Each structure stands twice: as structure tokens, then as C-alpha cells.
UniProtKB/TrEMBL annotation:
The active site is at residue 82. This is Tagatose 1,6-diphosphate aldolase GatY/KbaY. The lineage of its organism: Bacteria, Bacillati, Bacillota, Negativicutes, Selenomonadales. Keywords: Metal-binding, Zinc. Its cofactor is Zn(2+). One of its GO terms (molecular function) is aldehyde-lyase activity. Binds 2 Zn(2+) ions per subunit. One is catalytic and the other provides a structural contribution. Zn(2+) 2 binds at residues 104, 134. Zn(2+) 1 binds at residues 83, 189, 217. PANTHER family: D-TAGATOSE-1,6-BISPHOSPHATE ALDOLASE (PTHR30304), D-TAGATOSE-1,6-BISPHOSPHATE ALDOLASE SUBUNIT GATY-RELATED (PTHR30304:SF0). It comes from Pectinatus cerevisiiphilus. It holds the Pfam family F_bP_aldolase. One of its GO terms (biological process) is carbohydrate metabolic process. The keyword Metal-binding applies.
Amino acid sequence: MSLVSLKEMLNDARKNKYAVGAFDVSNLEMALAVVEVAEKKKSPVILMGLCLDLQGDRLDYWLYSLRKIAQKASVPVCIHLDHATDVEFIKKCVNAGFSSVMIDGSMLPLKENIEKTKTVVDYAHKFDVSVEAELGHVGDGIVGSSEIGAPKKDTFDKPEDSLTRPDELKQFIDATGVDCIAVAVGTAHGIYVYKPKIHFDRLKTLNEISVVPMVMHGGSGTPDALIKESVQNGICKLNIFSEMLTAFYGTMKDELNAAEHLAIWPHNANEKPLIALKKVVAAKIDLVGSTNKA
């Protein structure tokens, strides 16, 4: 197929009431595994890069490989920069060839979030690169595990404290021109330390207001029934990372503990962990309804 923008991909998802799985892929093997599953499922897919994995020359190496994968894929692929806060780094990623970027100003006051997001939108749109922003703040399940480098804390985030406010949503979208918006409705990044509660009344209201597709962060560990209902109420992109890592490293741990020695070729050591990771990806693609949508 080809490399596509997030706007193109999510507009179709919104129109047809499904969501697209967005998977953080820290290395080549993860990216290949995710696309292999997407091709089998005939599903569009979003491959995401985290800033920590893209520092220095790694940005060029990672993006070169991911663009090759997208060009050869038989399904639409979006390459998306996840949870970036530094405008200059975002511009660097736009210039390098991402098809989509996220500017996360969710920890800023509304006025500053709008100003920073608009700066990124104005720049990225010159190159037909889509922009995702966040309004409200999706916190962290594990203390100190922030994807955006927030300072470590001594207490767990309470999602109810930072839900997206309906009265701010239209203002934010109109002022920034953003292509999609991550909303805070009760999920958390990382591993849950409590039972998640999705505020569906809030989500329904936001969906009535928003003129752009909405994104749910913190998809790992959220019960399937809650995700399905979220998709029916406007969520068009679901972010997944922690469940992939748990499957991969949990299987790796079992394999290494059972091994007679640790001089194992990486290809052999990674075989079963990658199978476990692919099962997570396949399940999420089916769950959000993007199977056979490519």
C-alpha cells in the first residue's frame, strides 16, 4: 500500500464507526510484527515512535526502516510521533518524514496548550503532516512512568481530576486546526493500579462537540467491553504499548528461566515472545473493528 496521513485514516474510521490500533514500536522487530498482523487482518495500522527511542541518530535509523516497511506493506500504514512536547524536535520529525505527529501540551494551561499546538499545526500542515493534540490529561497508572517525561510523583494519578472539559473542546479545535484530539475520559497510561472507569456521559458529550476524530490513550488493560463502547461513542484511535511489552517480556522471562544456558541466538530467543506480542496486536485490531477495513 503506502504511507498515509493520520487524518486520512481516522476520517474514514469516524465515518464508518471503527477505530485504528496505534502501537508503539521501539525497534524493527516490533514494527515488522505489528505490520505482519495488520496485513493478515487486512487492517490499517498506526506505528508510533516514542521520543526516548528516537534520540540522536536513532531517529534516522528508525524512520528509514519504518518508511520502508510502510512502502512495502499491503495495508495503509501511518507513522506517528507519540507524546512529544518539544516543538523543535517535532519539526525535526516532520522534516524527517513522519506522516503524523503528536504535540502533547496537556500539562499546560489551556492558553499555552492552544498556542503550542497551533505552532505545530501551522508547521506540519505545510508538509501535509497530520497533528494530534491532547486536551485534558491522561495520567499514568504506574507512578513515574510518564511517556512525556513528567517528574516522578509519590502518588497515583486520578483520571477524574483531569478529564477533558466539554466547554474547552470546541475552542481548542477551532483555535488550533488540529486533525484529531486525544481526550481524557478515565483511562491511564501504563499498568492500571485500580479498576478503570470510563466516563461515557462525558465521552458522548465530547463526541457531539468534536468535529475531528477522537483518540483514546491508555488502551492497555482497559476492559474490552469499555473499549468497544468507547469506539461506538467516537473513539477512532486506540493507543497500545504496555500490553505488548507484558506479553513479550513475560514470555521471554519464561523462555529464559527454562533455558539450559543463555547463549541463545536472538532470533530463537525472540521467536515465542514475538508470537505473544502478535496475539495482543491481533486481538486489539479485532476489538476496535478495523479488520477488513484496509
